[in-house]
Structures are given as C-alpha cells and as structure tokens.
Specification:
- The protein has about 525 residues and is α/β, with parallel strands linked by helices.
- Helices cover about 30% and strands about 15% of the residues.
- It is built from twelve helices and 17 strands.
- The strands form four sheets. It has a seven-stranded parallel beta sheet, with helices on one face. A five-stranded antiparallel beta sheet has the order 10-11-12-17-14, covered by helices on one side. Strands 13-16-15 form a three-stranded antiparallel beta sheet, with no helix packed on it.
- Helix 5 crosses helix 6 and helix 10 packs parallel to helix 12.
- It is globular and about 85 Å long.
- It starts with a helix and ends with a strand.
Amino acid sequence: MKANKSIRALFLLIPLLIMASCNNLPSDTSGVSSDNMTTPSDYEIDETVTNENGGVYYQIFVRSFADSNGDGYGDLTGIAHKLPYLKTLGVKGIWLTPIHPSPSYHGYDVTDYKAINPDFGTISDFENMISAATANSIDVIIDLVINHSARSHPWFREGRERFASPDYDPNDPYDKGNWYDFYIENGQVKVQTGFFGDSMPELKLDNIAVREEIVSISKFWLDKGVKGFRLDATSHFFESHALNIDFLRWFSNMVKTYKPGSYIVAEAWEGFNIQKNYYAGVDSLFNFDGSGATGFIIDNIETRSGPIISNNIARCFNEAYAINENALMAMFLSNHDQDRSSGMFTRDYLERQKVAASIYILTPGVPFMYYGEEIGLKGSRAGANTDANRRLPMVWKRLKDTYRPNPPIGTTYDMTKQVRDGVEEQLADPMGLLNHYRKVINVRNMHPWIKSARPNHLQLNVNGLTALTLHEHNGNKELIVVHNLLAEPIHVKLTRFITEYEVEIIHDIYATGTRATYNNGTLTLAPYSSVVLRRK
C-alpha cells in the first residue's frame, strides 16, 4: 500500500515538474509561442472563419441522408434541416445525387428530368431547400444524368413506337425514334445495349433535338437556384474521347453563358493520363487516381510512402493546369460507387482517417467529401454485389435518431457493425474525427486562394512525410503543408530544404493531441499530424 501511495504521489508531482521546466524554455521558439506549448484540449477552431469563402463540397446520397417525416426515406426537407450542421462543418457546397423520378433506388435512370422523386418531396420542397442553402452560404449542384435515361422514360417509349411506325422519319432530329440507337430484329424494335445495360438506354447526344432538351433541363434547374451540375459518366457519352470533350466544352459554354459563375464537375472514370485531356472541355473533374484503397493517397498512407503522395498531387494538378489554367481538380477519398474510405486502413484506423482528410482537403481545386465520411461511416460491398452497401444511412445520433433513414433497397450490410456515435456525439468529442474535419476545413477556409494555387512537391527525404508548397496563382502568397504518416514523431531539419527564407508554423493540426514545434530550423511533427507554414 505504501508503494502505491508513493507512485500516486510521483504522478501528482510530474505535472508540477513539467510546469517548472516550461519556465526555462527558450523565448525564441520560431513560430510556436510559449502559450502554445500547453497540451491542447480541442482543435482550437477559429469560429470567426465561416464557409462563405470556402471551397469544400459534400456529396449527399439523398435517400440515405436525413428523413424529415419518418417515412424511411431521406428527403429534401431533411437536407434543409441539416444545412446549419453543414455550415458548422465548413463546407461551401453540396452535390445531390439524382433527385428525379426513377424506377430504381439510386436514381441514375431518370423518367422525368424536370420533376422531383416523390420519395424526396416536391418542387416546393426543393425551392425551400435552396433558400435554406443560400441562408447558410451553401451552394447546391445536382446530378445530371444525360448519358442515358430510364427505359420507362416517355421519350424512350415514344421513340420505340415511332421507330416501328410508318410515320417514322429517320432524317427528323425531333422524331424520338432518332433519340436512341434503335434497330429492328425479327420484327421487334430493340435498342443497342449501352455501357450501363438494357435498363439505361443511351441518348444520342449529337442529336440537335436532344441537345435542345438538355439546354431546357439545365436552364430549368439553374432558374431554380442551383449553382451547377455534376455530370455523370462523361467518358461514355460517345465512343471517342475527343467527342466527349467536345460535348463537355459545348455544355460548359452553354451553362456559363446562361448563368455566369456556374460550377460544373464531370465524372470521367479514367486513368489520369487519359482523363487530363478532358480539362480541355470542362474545368472540374474528379481525380480517380487518388481515390479508393489503391489510389495514391490511402495506398501510400498504408505503406508510409509520403513523397509519392505529394509528387502525384503536384503532377496531376500541374498537368491539368497545362491544359486548362482554370482547372479545378476535385480530389476525394471515396464516393457512392466505392467502398467507404473508413474501411480502407489496416491499423491506426482513426488516426489514418484523420491524416487522409488533412492531405486531400488541403489541396487546390474543389475537394469532395462523401456524406458521413466525417464520422467514419462504414459500408462496403464485401462479398455482396450491391452498391447499396456503400450508400448506408447517415447516423445523426446514437439513440432516438429520428432523422436516420432506412437502409436502401438491396442492402446486405450488417448494420450492427455500423458506427454507433453520430454527429451529435462526435461534435461533443473535441479531438474526434468530426472535429478534425472541421479543423482542416477551417484552415482551408482561411486561405480561399488555395482553390487555384499551384502546388509543388517538397522533397524532405523522409518517407514518413508528404509535403507540398502551395503558390498563389498570379500572386505572391505561399504556404508549405507537411503531413506525418507515421505512428511516431518525426524530426526534420527544414533549413536543409528551404534555404531562401525562414518559415513559421501558422496552423497546427495535431491529430493525436501533441503540438508541433519549430526550433532552430527543425520541425517536430507528432504522429499523423499536419502543419501549415509560411514565410516569416
């Protein structure tokens, strides 16, 4: 018992000894004041910095996000109710997966491009959501699925009838028999099977009448207040990349002429060496090379190969800028067609989720989060061949979660393995994953010019570090961003690599609760943590 009392007494003395030793710290800490040497109790988010000038977008799979009326379906009113949360998170925009009527749960086979899926609400609900988004300084883009429609779309039904009719005119672009690739076999009207199967017949996007419909649809939603569109499956529009790019150029010019300042982001799920050419047609594209378990972000976090990450980020951005100086690359970890990023790590799950977030959000362009990523939401196909497992309900709180929708049709995921703590609990955890996301987005929102910054890979000769120098486009501002991928602190003599000027830490993203220091040219960075430095 006496030994136990002695041990307890020693533990009580340790904080006093630490405090006494702090009084003898050198006064020049090169960017880290003596006030900042305390152990942080939270992420010290600057609440005066809002999302108003931010650049991070948030993807919402509408059916699984927020159910306002208890019918089991996420809906537009539910999204409106959660916009203050998204403002607190710091995001500037939201992307809504298809909101139109559709025979499928996912909505990527549309039957009416100017209507709202009744599961999600009404046009009035959409207008109210747009008003609420505006009040929260949040832009809204919607999925526009024009590569194909549903088989049950009136256009397809009329076209199939017209194609077999004696009144069919193969030279009339307004004859809907010319809107799809119909043919007759054994007396039956059939349609060429497209990339997405028989249930999603592909539209002839070179038909002038089809393009007029696309113009009408686009203007309809722009008039409703959307900021722009996410274009689905753009590398499948035609059988030629060149034709796809020409179409994107036409669409982008049309939208931006009608509503200057609109934002269009395209999905072209190709390797970057092919995809980069699409920047000749549209400003923003999702970078798939960096996403997923085998993408260059998570894969190299797992193998602790930091320089590969920053080298790839810099290469991709600069090759895109060489084609389109206004390029806005969209980095992301995962989306509705991929397994959840939370399940892609083999150890130190929380810490690696944090550093992955820090890496991709602190890149130029327009980073995209997938809903629930900030709370570690789980979901994967595993052995099941269903994407429904990747689109599971958002968790708002542990108990009595009235906004939580039902799992989508086709789900086989064991929901007992889902995260327990939702947004409510995680907001109350000062050093948790959600507040880590808030911190990183908050840092990015302090420097809006990062959106168009030019990145360079900073070689620090340490495999556990990934580092970028961000240069303001047509300006003089510059930041250095360094991330530690290891489970132990890293000490690096920055003055060996940055010789032209002195730097100081201005943002410390201490994922494990230990502050970074910069003394006499040496940066000490805690496990899985990040810093942003600037010229003194």
